[in-house]
Amino acid sequence: MDNKKKNILFIVNPISGTGKQNNIQEKVNQLLSNKKFNVSFKFTERAEHAVEIAREAGASGVDIVAVVGGDGSVNEVAKGLLNSKVAMAVIPTGSGNGLARHLKIPCNVDKALLLLNDSKEWCIDTCEIDRRFFVGAAGLGFDALIAHEFPKLKRRGFASYIKVFLKNYFSYANKTYSLKCENQNTDSEYFVCSFLNSSQYGNGTVISPKSVIDDGEFEVVCIKKIPLLLLPVYAYKLFAGTLKNDKYFHSYSAKSVSVKTQNAIAHIDGEPIALANEFEVKINRKSLWVMVGSNFGNSIDPETSSGSIES
Question: Distance (Å, rounded) from C-alpha 114 to C-alpha 97?
């Protein structure tokens, strides 16, 4: 075991989601082992600032970059650390925290910090959609509409998400998507068309139970509009992580997919964007080191997994 202290930089989004990042410096000084880490902090000041800070981290001798924020902040830091030897840790303070949940990182700030004292590193895949980076999830259709409407609300959190969901669900119709990859060729109407590297959007919603984040593939998830009477059934399956292929839900694995659609509003790791009408989604195999929860990887196939490095 290497007893050398590691340099860890905390990149803090001061306006992230729920305000859990308040007093983060005090908590880090209280909970993180000063025998294992040399600690420093930087606060983001604008969009994409975290990308710049993360890219500079490796050159300045940083071993771990800990992002304190939501999935949007995680996306920026991951982009800055892509294909580097610097590992990303996540201290989740956002509304959904989808990647943190997949990596078995507690959404409680104190517990997430304590987890770093017995850290485990893992190399994971990342993805691109229309040449734009994402690490957890990207999507088209209804979930993209929600991503565009959600920031307009004054308050974040799961209750606000449900409010936006119910406001738009009944008026939103299936849209046509043409999807082509090695093993699938579909041209159909869907309510949701998403691409999942991790298993969920956030808030415990497991939209892709089959996702393995280091297997060299992502999951294509296509959902047709579900009738009102069946919504409670599918909501239960969503939170229980038991969605399976049926007449409304279909998923399959791919290394790349060519997509054609019209007026493609989308989200990348929860952040709203607009895409071209034709684009490609592809995998970046084992391109990011991350710190994971102590029980992460227990169910991963050892033949496909990269394994871990204990620190």
Answer: 18
pLDDT digits (tens, 9 = 90+) for 9-21: 999 988 765 566 7
Per-residue exposure over 183-204, b if at least 16 CB sit within 10 Å of its own CB, e if not: eeeeeeebbbbbbbbbbbbbbb
Query: 157 falls in which pLDDT band (50, 70, 90)?
Result: low
Evaluate whether 92 touches 100 at the Cβ level (below 8 Å). Answer: yes
Sequence-separated (6 or more) residues with CB below 8 Å from residue 69: 11, 12, 13, 16, 17, 21, 44, 50, 91, 92, 93, 94
Domains in the chain, start-ordered, CATH in brackets?
A: 6-127+286-310 (3.40.50.10330), 132-284 (2.60.200.40)
Angle between helices 109-116 and 24-31 (to 10 degrees): 40
